[in-house]
């Protein structure tokens, strides 16, 4: 977890320095994510979900009035909850991997809505790369094999709403992440999946 804190602290410093110099917006986000592992190409499989805290920081880089590039760095824990039966006893085991995830999103904003009502509706999509920091199983707390500590990559799509609250621009984001790389040391050809809901502040 120290690696997570050091990485986020360093990135936040870079974000604030860059935003101050270039007069672009930056911000922070916190929320929850529902995650699982699913077979490659099996989009309807959203079973065996685990829940995670997620947090991160972002930059808004304007391309034009309605189009922005939004690089981010986020922490999220992704995993799958598996039930097995032994001697008429059901055992539930959570397999989770801690990621430092770096998406680069293309964001389209409805600026006409902002002009009329004061808030912005937006959609975003783009690729991400996620670096595995740690992994674990519960309730045994035994680490998964080291080969699990690898890079994941995939795609993110989402919608959001930004509205002024007490003089600050507050963002509500709903996103879906779909991993495209195989998860090592799993019994099947699994990919990561995550649905997250976050609240952020744009500065």
Structure in words:
By secondary structure, the protein is mainly β. It has one domain: Beta Barrel (Porin), CATH 2.40.160.20. The protein is 14% helix and 63% strand. The chain is built from 2 helices and 8 strands. Strands 1-2-3-4-5-6-7-8 form an 8-stranded antiparallel β-barrel. Strand 3 and strand 4 form a beta hairpin. The longest helix has 21 residues. It is elongated and about 50 Å long. The relative contact order is 0.20. The model has no long low-confidence stretch (mean pLDDT 80).
Feature tags:
8 strands, 203 residues, Porin, mainly beta, 14% helix, elongated, eight-stranded antiparallel β-barrel
- CATH structural fold name: Porin
Number of helices: 2
State the assembly state of the protein chains: single chain
Mean pLDDT over all positions: 80
> Strand sequence of the main sheet, in spatial order?
1-2-3-4-5-6-7-8
Total number of distinct structural domains: 1
Give me the count of strands: 8
Spans of at least 5 consecutive residues with low confidence: none
Q: Can you write the helix and strand succession as a string? A: HEEEEHEEEE
Strand content: over 45%
Give helix % range.
10-25%
Classification by helices and strands: mainly beta
The CATH architecture assignment turns out to be Beta Barrel
Question: Biggest sheet, open or closed, and with what strands and sense?
Answer: 8 strands, antiparallel, barrel
Morphology? elongated
CATH class: Mainly Beta
Task: Write down the Rg.
Answer: 18 Å
Distance between the termini: 27 Å
């Amino acid at each position: 977890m120290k690696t997570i804190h050091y990485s986020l602290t360093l990135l936040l410093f870079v974000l604030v320095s860059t935003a101050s110099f270039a007069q672009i917006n930056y911000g922070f986000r916190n929320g929850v994510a529902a995650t699982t592992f699913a077979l490659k190409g099996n989009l309807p499989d959203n079973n065996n979900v685990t829940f995670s805290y997620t947090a991160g920081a972002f930059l808004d880089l304007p391309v034009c009035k309605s189009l922005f590039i939004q690089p981010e760095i986020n922490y999220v824990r992704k995993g799958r909850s598996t039930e097995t039966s032994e001697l008429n006893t059901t055992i539930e085991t959570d397999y989770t991997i801690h990621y430092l995830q770096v998406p680069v999103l293309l964001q389209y904003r409805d600026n006409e809505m902002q002009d009329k009502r004061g808030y912005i509706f937006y959609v975003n999509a783009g690729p991400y790369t996620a670096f595995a920091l740690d992994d674990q199983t519960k309730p045994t707390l035994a680490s998964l094999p080291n080969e699990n500590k690898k890079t994941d990559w995939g795609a993110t799509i989402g919608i959001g709403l930004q509205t002024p609250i007490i003089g600050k621009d507050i963002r509500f984001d709903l996103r879906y992440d779909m991993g495209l790389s195989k998860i090592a040391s799993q019994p099947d050809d699994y990919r990561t999946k995550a649905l997250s809901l976050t609240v952020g502040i744009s500065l």
